[in-house]
Amino acid sequence: MGYRSEVALLLYTSDSKREPLLDLWVRANIVDVFRADEELREYFEWKGEKDNELYRLIDGGIVIQFKSIKWYESYPIVKFVDGIIEQFIETFLNDPVTTEAYEFMRIGESYEDTEERAGGDTQGFLRLERSIEIDV
Q1: What is the pLDDT of residues 28-73, one digit of tens each?
Q2: Distances from the Cα of 79 to the Cα of 29, 75, 84, angstroms
Q3: Segment 95-123, tens digit of pLDDT
Q4: Which residues pair with 9 in a beta bridge?
Q5: How far, in Å, CA of 7 to CA of 127, rounded?
Q6: How far is CA 83 from CA 77, 78, 105, 109, 117, in A?
Q7: Most CB atoms closer than 10 Å: which of 3, 36, 43, 110?
């Protein structure tokens, strides 16, 4: 089965007047790109990641979340998500009065294997919680 991670990325704005701009950016740089990229689509179909949801549009932004995914730098989906973050930073976060923000978190199977990144006008929507699961 391999080493698995849980991953979440939020892109959002706190200014309702800028929601249409962010929505257009999300559709052009995420939704349309994913739909057009056969390698990304095949990755999900081939891996059978039925519990993974690529994206969910929310008021003022988008949520990208993977519940159980192999997260290696060479994988297409990792390059895709890292590219989204880079493009988002270049497009929105270089503006000194930006209301846009991103929050990224990855939790690996090992206790100390966590990764967090954030930028912009963050609201702290992502948080890490550990729990005990009992399979008896």
Answers
A1: 988 788 778 887 776 655 454 444 456 777 878 888 888 888 888 8
A2: 14, 7, 9
A3: 888 899 999 999 998 888 999 999 998 99
A4: 64, 104
A5: 12
A6: 10, 8, 15, 24, 14
A7: 43
Domains and CATH numbers, the chain: 5-120 (3.30.70)
Predicted TM-score (pTM) of this structure: 0.83
Task: Return the amino acid letter for 52.
Answer: N
Could you identify the residue written with the tokens 């800028």? 18
Helix (H, G, I), strand (E, B) or coil at 90: helix
Q: What is the side-by-side strand order in the sheet with 100-108?
A: 53-58, 61-69, 5-13, 100-108, 114-120
